Amino acid sequence: MVMKKKKRITSGIITYGILIIALIWTIFPVYWMIKSSFTVSNEMYVARPKLFSLHYTLENYIELFTETHFPRALLNSVEIAGITTVICLVISILGSYAMTRLNFPGRRFFRISSIFSYLIPTAVMFVPMYVFVSNLGFYDNKYSLLIIYPTTVVPYCCYMLMSYFEAIPTALEEAALIDGCTRLKALWHIIIPIALPGIAVVATFAFTMSWNEYLYAMIMTTSTDQQTAVVAINSFKYADSAIWGRIMAASVATSLPVTLIYIIAQSQLVGGKSDGSVK
Amino acid sequence: MAALTKINRAGAQTRKDKRLGLLLMLPVIIVIFGVMGYPFLNAIWLSFTDKVVGGEANFTGWDNYIALIHDDIYWLSLKNTIIYTVGCIAAKLLLGLLLAVLLNKSIKGKTFFRTALLIPWAIPGMVAATTWRWMYDSTYGIINSLLISTGLTTTGIPWLSDTHLTLFSTMIVNVWRGIPFFMFSILGALQTLDKQQFEAACVDGAGSFKQFWYITLPAISSVIGITTLLSTIWTFNDFENVWLITGGGPVYSSSTIPTYTYVKAFTENNLSGAISVAVSVIPILIILIIIYARANKKSS
Amino acid sequence: MKKIGKTLKSACVLGLSGALLVCSVGCSSSSESSGGEKTGKKQLVFWDKSEYVTAYNDMMKEKVDEFAEKYDVDVDYVIVNSGDLEQKLAAAIESGNQPDIIMGDNTSVAEYIASDQLAEVSDVLADIDLKEEAKPYAVFNDTEYLVPLSLTAPGMFARQDVWEEHGLEAPKTWEELKEQAKIINDPDNGFYALGLPLGESGGGDAETFIRTIILDYGGEVVNAEGEVTVNSPEVLEAFKFIASLYEEGLVPPDATTWDDSGNNSAYTAGTVGVVFNSGSLMGTLKDEYPEIWDNTAIFDYPAAEEGGQSYTLGGANVFGIFKTGDNTETAKEFISYFFSDTDFYNEMVEAIGGMWQPVINGYDDTEFWQDPDNAVWLTAASNLTLTTAPAPTTDTAAQGFSNHLCTKALQNIVVNGMDPQEALDGLEADLNELYQ
Known about the structure:
The complex is a heterotrimer of chains A (279), B (300) and C (436). By secondary structure, chain A is mainly alpha-helical. Chain A is built from 12 helices and no strands. Chain A has 2 domains: 2-61; 63-265, Orthogonal Bundle (MetI-like fold), CATH 1.10.3720. Chain B has 300 residues and is mostly helical. Helix content of chain B is 75%, strand content 0%. The longest helix of chain B is centred in the first third of the chain and has 36 residues, at 11-46. The radius of gyration of chain B is 24 Å and the shape is flat. The termini of chain B are close together. Chain C is of the alpha/beta class and 436 residues long. Chain C folds into 2 domains: 21-152 and 316-362, Periplasmic binding protein-like II (D-Maltodextrin-Binding Protein, domain 2, 3-Layer(aba) Sandwich); 154-311 and 404-435, 3-Layer(aba) Sandwich (D-Maltodextrin-Binding Protein, domain 2), CATH 3.40.190. Chain C contains 19 helices and 12 strands. Chain C has helices spanning 2-28, 54-71, 85-94, 106-114, 122-125, 160-165, 174-184, 205-216, 233-247, 262-268, 280-288, 290-294, 328-340, 342-351, 367-370, 372-382, 395-402, 405-414, 420-435; strands spanning 42-49, 73-80, 101-105, 139-140, 143-144, 146-152, 154-159, 192-194, 272-278, 296-299, 312-321, 384-386.
């Protein structure tokens, strides 16, 4: 008995030890980013910086939100990421349902090949893609991203949703179908409610992916009123000087919304499937 | 699968399902194949031409690919990309798995740890790279400053200038940002596992490692598989991280396929050569997907 | 029930609209150009460089609006981050959406001459009273393609306090600078003597510096006849000299990866004793690091030997006009309009605070340029040499510069420990391939 208790204590120490190391490793860069954003400009460049600043200032944030186009860019990001998420969820729920529950020609092919769109690095695709999208009439227009983002977000959502849908026993549906319920009704009344926590997770990721995307956003939006937040951050780097305080403040402001969503959705994110009435 | 055939016994239902299936898939097909298809085929075509930015595209056959065979930097970039991908994935998988297992225990402060450890995934990749670049700096970087003040080194570690280290430095950042993805994917899977199974195993006297190896791991292997595959492809094609931290340098020491592509396209203006670099690695990615498809088939 | 109907309906709408989009590309891939002709009103798209000193973009915007009003033109004035310009232009050119005017560094704008994108501007230049030293920046492949907006001469920023502390005088030769560097170097306290970048990215600070030393040592990368003459004892000596600065630890180790802001930030942090930079650094120092600015002197460039020829290599900001755009004539009208108000022009250049020097005659004796702080830059500008000199200014020369070939060769020596002669052979081969 004593042995067992001892063992438990040791394992507890190891567990917490690892978690605390992981915590420091995870949080430190975030701390450094936040710290830098509150640092006065002439203290940014100091050889052998210290962990804490001597003077803190709100100046970087005040300038960022009153003198630059950043607030507008933030709103653009909300708009683009929000709409992308909704579009992608609708498309992916329908598609994933079809790929997991319905037998149609090419099902296997689609299941495997939807990952196709990840194959070529964005670094190359973006010129042909730009030509394609601007031929559709989208030129210097943030809405062009609504066409592009689904190509990477939808496959991801489908993969996740398919695994959630597969975890739901078909028995639940069968009963409903025998009672004369249509497929779509079954999807709406049975599958979606059960998979809702999973869908929330997927929505969070879809939002994050579109919120964080840089290359396409940079190439597709030129005017300041079209830029997304991530692109706006980079506009504070000039040819041979960078306003680091402002860049870091903008970085914090850009990271904050998604981080907050994660914190709120945390239990869903990891709890995901188990909370559903799978049993 | 069995359930599916049971439902489909009625022929009318099967036909209806077929039509409905295609109808529901249509948006996915349009998004993936419609939007990606044309630019993709266009890219493949360009890789067989002598296209430069703003120039005419003339068909040149395999010239671009033959040039790659003799291009040392191409092979170096490919080698770096493989090291980068394999190293990052291994680290992310092992650490993500470890953290997921620890966080699945009933411990105090679980919610706090889970939340905090998720944060890197919420930070835009571009921001993460910029911040780490800033921390690595030999003069103003906090990392070397801390190492020196704790007496671990006297001159600091040349994270960004030692050609043996640069690739590794970029990998650290990729791992930092990528662990949470593995962690919560695996944690999600762990939580769906049936507790009773473990209790039974415990009664049987199976040790905790044995239990993990024989029961837990197989049960979450499909989630691990999907997570690893997705992350492998992302990591393989990861551009921003390397580009913003080292620019692929110094002297190509951290050059990867995506950064080399970019340099070829926009510094050298050689669009067709650039695309041929990217297209040349597609077979590798396709092999990965086939492996995944096989594994997927087996498990289901 | 209703909800499902809605979901389905929206799926169908999405699907259909997607299908339509795809079809429309197939059918009308080239019918959509940058548009606007329908309205009859003249159009102009101007991609301007974003400047650290916001006064520039504000004043240019003012001028653009004035022009738009007077000539009844729809002007789209867009400020583009210089780091993004190459990729954005590549994509824009490929899709036929290129702007009508761009402003940028002469070497980066010149890249679009090679792909036959830019219009000749002799007619515009005819009306501008360009200074002699600005004229070379307009010509490319023996044709006038670029309209200089301002010169950006570099200077040698040095920490006067450090020099005085060690009782040193401004160096006259590069070797002397190196000897002084050894004295003031103090890496244990995070202070390095020389902030010399050796990274490839950006506007080529490293490439410019290396080519300066090569010229001072009597070498030529490519001679005036356009022959590759880099493999010479003079260049070898120059390479060995530069490499020794890194090998002897006089430069911060990270400098091999610095972008163009690396040396600036090192200097503003007070961690290096000398940097070679355009006047932009002066602006930053005055605004944000006055205590460092007070201790800064702008030294004359040293030479290879005392009394020897000392070159100052530098670039210019230039306008390029796209001939492939729809509004080439309007673009030319705008440039002429802009330069017709020379007082405004000078006011703009002065507002940027010394880092830009005027390209037109007649403003050298203003109060601003008589101020010794600023006069230094005007003098430097009047002796400015093209970064590709003495090679003829061709697109090949520009490509050689923007591919950072000399920087790569030096990196090979410094970072990979390659033998200098071997690195030089490699550089020669690369250049020959370019010039073949």
